[in-house]
Write a structure and sequence with these properties.
It contains nine helices and eight strands. The protein is of the alpha+beta class and 234 residues long. The strands form two sheets. Strands 1, 2, 3, 4, 5 and 6 form a six-stranded antiparallel beta sheet that branches. The chain has a two-stranded antiparallel ribbon with strand order 7-8. Helix 1 crosses helix 4, helix 6 runs parallel beside helix 8 and helix 7 packs antiparallel against helix 8. The longest helix has 25 residues. It is elongated. The termini are far apart. The relative contact order is 0.11.
Amino acid sequence: MNRKDLLETLALYLDPLFTEHGFKWKKSKQIFEKKTPEGFWQMGFYTYSEDNCMYLEPGFDIRNNRVEEVFVKYKLQNPATAKDSTTLSATIYSIAKRDRFSYQVCTFSDIELTAKQVIVFMKDKGFPFFEKYNDIEQMEQLYNRNPDNYIVKNYLIQKRAFTSVILAKMLNKGDYSDIVEYWEKRISAMESTWGTDVILPLFLAMKKDLEGENYLVDDGIRYGDDALIALRSK
């Protein structure tokens, strides 16, 4: 059993439920995706093989266009894939708040049972996760109330740092300066260890832009002229 056949078959069982919630199966990416006014939601599967069985771990991603439009300006990701960048990521075990686990599929007859288990999880925790953290206030809380806990969020420190600051600025948080200081120290320490000087200058440039007078306010977030024009031209 190969990954492609497994996921295509699983998607057939899951499609009615996901369609009901506004998702579409993207065959080319092998994910379920829902476009939202703010960006998109995605659910896909991390897979690995062991002892002639396939193990599946659902992964969940939320994109907020307003956050990503600011983030992409600082070129910390490939421009060619920037439109697919996500603001918040989570695994099934971090959402379930339990030890890591996977769905095991050893034969095609196991796929239907796995689909039933995924359906139960989505109704109980998966769809509520999307609904809750699509809200930028909830997203900001997740990023900034416990910044060292990155089981949910993003694994790359630079992505977490930039996103934390952007969200805090979007919401005009009273502790914005403390959040900036925290991440500036973290990035500085990281680059000192790595012997690099790449991310910190970009972080400080973003900080300066976000706080500068040349930034325009649009729907509660500050954009630079170029970023705002790009956003409105879409």
